[in-house]
Amino acid sequence: MELLEDQKLHVKNQFCRLLKNLNDQQALIKLLNNKDIENRRYAASALGAIGPEAKQAVLALIQSLKDRDKIVRANAAWALGKIGPEAKTAVWPLKTKPAVCSLIQALDDQNEDVSQNAARALGAIGPEAKPAVPALIQVLDDQYADVRSYAAKEIRKINSKIEAETTDEIDFDF
Description:
The chain has helices at 9-21, 25-31, 37-50, 58-64, 70-83, 86-91, 98-106, 112-125, 133-139, 145-169. The protein is an all-alpha fold. The chain has a single domain, classed as Alpha Horseshoe (Leucine-rich Repeat Variant). Helix 3 packs parallel to helix 5, helix 4 (58-64) runs parallel beside helix 7 and helix 5 (70-83) packs parallel to helix 8 (112-125). The radius of gyration is 17 Å and the shape is globular. The protein starts with 8 loop residues before the first helix and ends in a 5-residue tail after the last helix.
């Protein structure tokens, strides 16, 4: 872990990539709380790159949505989106949907990238993100065109997944 103390950004980045390639999620989760901003940024990004297999990191990533650094928050939102529907199953035992709730809050972040990535993550979660649709509708008035565009796209994505699931449940054999 001495490599994390190195002042060279490329060394920290490469170390997080190594942890990602080794699928050492526990080490990456610990890095989300590291005092060094760059380590937190790279750790969130690496967990997102792992994808759905990183569902054990969901709660730590939710906490990272509150980080003081906007890039850490944006990377955490992006990572939750890359984990996708697995994010909901990772937190399902809690009987609430903290990932969805936290991402709804992140839609109001003052940083455009955080809001965009929160919208994209909600769309990736799918039908379990249905409670976020009213918040996404409010974001259609956001000052940033890209945020508005992603919000509209993700509303359609969530609704189409809900419709597809509903249609799958209907027995068309009369």
